[in-house]
Amino acid sequence: MEKNNNNLVNESMENLFHTKFYIRKSMDYQKLLPLFKDAGLEVELDDPNPKGLLTCFEVVDKKTDEIIGASSIINNNGIYQVKTLAVTKEYQGRGIGRYLMDEMVHELRKLGAKKVILNAKEPGFYKRVGFIESPMDTNDIEYDCGDCEHFNRYCFPKIMEREI
Ligand SMILES: CC(C)(COP(=O)(O)OP(=O)(O)OC[C@H]1O[C@@H](n2cnc3c(N)ncnc32)[C@H](O)[C@@H]1OP(=O)(O)O)[C@@H](O)C(=O)NCCC(=O)NCCS
Predict the structure, then answer these.
(1) Taking the chain, what is the end-to-end CA distance rounded to the nearest angstrom?
(2) Alpha carbon of 114 to ligand 1 centroid (Å)
(3) What pTM was computed for the model?
(4) Which of 125, 148, 150, 159 to mutate to test the pocket of ligand 1 (most atoms within 8 A of CB)?
(5) Helix, strand, or coil here: 149?
(6) How far is the CA of 147 from the centre of ligand 1 (A)?
(7) Which tens digits make up the pLDDT trace of 63-74?
(8) Which of 8, 29, 104, 136 has its CB surrounded by the most CB atoms within 10 Å?
């Protein structure tokens, strides 16, 4: 009974989402750098495409055509990783991060991935969307925190993983 109710809630949220927004794929990582940077990710506006880029996802507001959330996935040495994920401040807390994650998992499943890993700046969010702390090491993944002045002062990222 509870499961059915939850399914109904999820379905109506999904319908609501699709009346307002849509998700598209692109390889234009550089176009998304201002959005990632504004959301506080450790990127620079002239960063090159990340090594092993598979695809980016863009959430577009149908009313304004504005990209209001985005993410990217990479594969290096057979390890699938969420490289970036951000939602613009005004749109946070409306389920857009979760939709982006669902879309990435769907794509990774199609690619045959069994597991995805990431460096979580917001571990609480990733826990809500099915990730657990990973035994993997910073050397195992593409890792950008090393030189960041916030690292382990104001920002306490965790390496996390999720079965696909
Ligand atoms: C983290 C981020 C992507 C979440 O996106 P969002 O659209 O605001 O999240 P959603 O609305 O989809 O939230 C999904 C769930 O996670 C929870 N959640 C969201 N942010 C959270 C956080 N910082 N800590 C704990 N839980 C969080 C929500 O309450 C919601 O829970 P529920 O479904 O059980 O009600 C977004 O806040 C963001 O872009 N932050 C700045 C950039 C960033 O830190 N990105 C992550 C880099 S590793």
Answers:
(1) 26
(2) 23
(3) 0.90
(4) 125
(5) coil
(6) 25
(7) 999 999 999 999
(8) 104
